[in-house]
Design brief:
59% helix; two-stranded antiparallel sheet; 16% strand; alpha+beta; 74 residues
Length: 74
């Protein structure tokens, strides 16, 4: 998990990146599924982890920045 430490006026505040959190969770889940499904566990875990991390990042990033709809007047 990626966390940024910001120090302001004597107290500390942490911020979590939704994309980074999603990438970590997706990578772990993808590695587990890839190892369970593949005949070659090591290769399956690597491929599953990479695909899961990319998908998790995309979902986490979209959670933070959803697409905005533009409504036009007629």
């Amino acid at each position: 998990m990626v966390m940024t430490l910001i120090v302001n006026g004597g107290y500390a505040q942490t911020r979590k990146s939704h994309g980074a959190t999603g990438a970590v969770v997706g990578g772990v889940a993808g590695a587990g599924v890839g190892a369970a499904v593949s005949h070659d566990r090591k290769k399956g875990a690597i491929i599953g982890g990479v695909v899961g991390a990319g998908t998790g990042y995309a979902i986490g990033h979209k959670k933070k920045y959803p697409r905005k709809r533009v409504y036009r007047k007629k």
